[in-house]
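Project standup — Tuesday

K.O.: blocked on the structure for the chain from last sprint. Re-posting the sequence here as requested.
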Amino acid sequence: MYLLSEISLFPFLLLLALWSAGGWFMLARFELPAHERGLLGLGVGLTLAALLANLTARLLPTVAAFWLAAVLTLAIGVALAWPFAWSFKRSAVRTILSHLMLWLLLALLTFFLTLIGRGLGIFDDYQNLTQLSSMALGDIPPHFVYDPRLLWSYHYFLLLVAAQLMRLAEAPPWTAMDVARGLTLALTLVYGAFLAWRLTKSQVAAALSAAFLFFAGGARWMLLLLPASLLQSISASVTLIGSGADTGPNLMAALYNNWKIQGLGPFPFPFLYGSGLDPSLTMAHAGYGASMFMLVLLIILLSTAPVAKSHPSVGYGVQQAILAVLLAALALANEVTFAFLYAGIIFAAVFWMLHQRTLHLPRSLWAFAPAILSGGVLALLQGGVFTGVLLGFLGRWSGSAAGEALYKVSFTIRPPAVLSAHVGTLSLSNPLHWLVILAETGLVVVVLPWVFWRGWKCLREERWLEAAWVFSMIPSLLTIFVEYTGNAGPTALSRMTAHFLMVLKFYAVPLLWVWLKEKADTWQVAFLGWGLAACLSGLGLLTLQIPAMPNPIYAEFLDPLDAKMYDKHWGTLQAGALVFDTSPQRGPTVLGLHTRSGIHYGPPTFPEWYALKENPDPFAMKRAGFRYLYLERAYWQKFADHFTHPCVKILDDMQDLAADGRVLAQRVLLDVEACYP
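H.V.: unblocked you, prediction finished:
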């Protein structure tokens, strides 16, 4: 299989082993079901290694930094498990062997999901591959690849995982990103099954819960069940945006069209299977993948697990340290999930005090204060969105420029409405829009009462972080009253509103399984039909992604010749230099360098970039800060005579030739460092 030729297997397996062993030892202080310990250890080790890499890469070259992070993960695990680490090590082998099928399932699931990702280039490759390529060469904390004067205040946890795979397992960025996404999504599904098993003690329920978590999503196809006249009225009342507007002139037309997005496999996706609010995890191809859900499930599973009775004070300290790491990583994986979880803690505390009629917080909540506070402090300092917000605040407070961070966060109040990234703003005051909202959110909203009941039960039992996760739905639901006015685009709000739907998916199957046990067959059959309907869009989308597996791609903006140039030149050029390319995302991905073209991921915004493109001059390019030029054939043929000065050095002129000698593609790499005025 081609995937095995794109990654060095031995260092990849060694890296996984170090992560798993380190996490395994850390969990020695927990009383966990035997089948959970090993796979939870992998997730904990992966997470700690990523945060350590985020630190060590600021001090050392990335190869040394990433290996050091992996070894430190193991060393910290052994230290936390001491003094019974060696006896625990002997039991580890027996436990892993006794649950080998679970490990095999994880491996197969990761392989399957990675192959799907390798065949698709949808969503954020233009953003993630460019940033990842420079991060793997040491740009940590990362700067904005299209203008490195700006700090990339974004969620880059998954890119940290992928960067380690690039440097240590020698995977190119397009492969490393897909492996990281596949592994974290596979762990998410397995952990979702663990949560369901704890609630039901049923392996069938656990398997069904993992499947539901994977497939459940929006149900836009339900709109086709409406009378044509009603659908026409609904269509006239909404204004499509984003890829929805690209798909059709109106909603009714778009429902019968294929979804207009780039990077698809052999078969297009029907627009009626999509959702601008709640896409299923079969579409988790964005830069964060499912990493935030993996982390949340780890937090729930470990915060509710008792610590070992031997040395309980040590076990408590280990638990708080691990939870702090997981919370900090969550902030780096997805700032929305992190913020809503912390808001959920506040809501849980307030509800508890109201229920108990007291102003004093319980001791059981204060027991989690070290993890909660430490995770929050790390979130502010480690990089990412919250560090960017802090820098902006400090800049405004001190009177200095606050523009060092790329993304700015701001909101305004508005009348209640739901924003879909495809269908636009849906007003709650318009009855027609309620039908579209239901279609965009999907049928999982049916379980809302059961999940709130679960949150109340967790509150009474003082399972604080799980209760916080359930009550994090409240700030998500309250986003219907706000409009995002920051510079990440208005549709960033749809991720915030969609948060509550993922909370529902975590618990839908296990809670209904328990509730339906004593119910009549009619109820059980009805909810079985509901579950299948809720998963229909996800099932449809997955079947259309599977044919992409045998046909790997690099990215929409990369060709096989670019992959050859990557193999030859990535990591060999001057660190920190800028590269000019008429396709701004291509050169940075291939060479691992930054460029200077604009302040967002779309078309370049700097006038000087366009001036250089239209009238290239090596001296002007040098003055603009560029050292390297990465040019395609058409541009080189048109402007080759502009680069005949002796100061221009041709580092490479790679061509792809047809059988008859014709040049099919060409990439030219120039160095203009010597072109001083």
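K.O.: great, moving the ticket to review. The chain has two domains: 1-551, 560-671. The CA atoms of residues 608 and 624 lie 8 Å apart.
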